[in-house]
Design brief:
The structure is a single chain. This protein is α+β, with helices and mostly antiparallel strands. It has eight helices and eight strands. The protein has helices spanning 12-38, 95-107, 120-126, 137-140, 158-169, 189-212, 221-234, 240-249, and strands at 48-51, 58-61, 77-80, 85-87, 113-117, 147-149, 174-177, 181-186. Strands 4-3-2-1-5-8-7-6 form an eight-stranded mixed sheet, sandwiched between helices. Helix 2 packs across helix 5 (158-169) and helix 3 crosses helix 6. The chain is globular, with a radius of gyration of 19 Å.
Length: 256
């Protein structure tokens, strides 16, 4: 007797829920591109943001060549973790973006959004031997929670570069890519934005303080630890409050 495997069809209700979840992620990720463009955190057609439905083996990212301000829910690419484009069209394959985001999603199941930027302040601090200093309350969000990855040319090799990023990041949600830029992650798009915004402000403050040539003060380690915990516990859902405010400010649509 031959055993036959019967594939059960996915109930329409489950398909509808899956589509609804993808629609929400598409809209919120497009909003992230729009918000970062309005804040001046973008870099022409370079850098990239991505997000996925929790538990999914695919993620969304914009096609290489679009400005952040041009990204809409309908022009986002959906890619699987082996680099195949499932939905959407592209003029040029973004190999560096795919390798960076795919490697992290495969190894960090808690992560559902990844933002990579090249802001002037972020790149400047990434090149400082001292790294991010606890010079401001903005920076204390990352006290003893910041990772660093030494520059190793363009991210073009999944094994050499992808595995290195995963190893260097560890369990943190923020990393300075030396001489390159910033990488921030979150369990939600809002959380990734939360870390992105605070890291950018921390880097801006550090550049101004060090550039002033004046002596500066650094809080004691125990105070920094206390402040980081207090600020993390102050938010029930990291980033949601500021995110909602910016969505209103910029007149963006929200499906969440």
């Amino acid at each position: 007797m031959v055993n036959q495997t019967v594939t059960k069809p996915i109930p329409p209700a489950s398909l509808a829920q899956e589509q609804r979840a993808e629609d929400v992620v598409r809209q919120e990720l497009a909003n992230a591109y729009q918000i970062l463009a309005r804040l001046g955190y973008d870099d022409l057609t370079y850098t990239h943001l991505s997000a996925r439905v929790p538990g999914s083996q695919s993620f969304f990212m914009h096609p290489l060549g679009l400005l952040f301000e041009e990204v809409e829910p309908d022009n986002l690419l959906q890619m699987n973790l082996t680099g195949e484009v499932l939905h959407g069209t592209q003029a040029q394959y973004n190999q560096t973006g795919y390798i960076m985001h795919s490697a992290l999603y495969q190894n960090r199941l808690d992560i559902n959004a990844i933002f990579h930027l090249h802001t002037t302040a972020g790149v400047s601090v990434s090149a400082m031997q001292c790294g991010l200093l606890p010079l401001s309350q903005f920076a204390l969000h990352f006290f003893n929670r910041m990772s660093y990855s030494d520059y190793d040319a363009l991210v073009l090799d999944p094994k050499r570069h992808g595995e290195k990023l995963v190893r260097d990041l560890g369990q943190n949600k923020a990393m300075l890519l030396r001489n390159h830029g910033t990488l921030t992650l979150g369990s939600t798009i809002q959380e990734a934005f939360f870390y992105t915004n605070f890291l950018e402000k921390a880097c801006q403050v550090q550049c101004q303080v060090l550039g002033s040539g004046e002596s500066y003060m650094v809080p004691a380690d125990d105070v920094c630890e206390q402040a980081r915990g207090d600020m993390q516990n102050f938010e029930t859902d990291l980033g949601v409050r500021d995110w909602a405010a910016l969505v209103r400010k910029f007149g963006l649509e929200s499906k969440g």
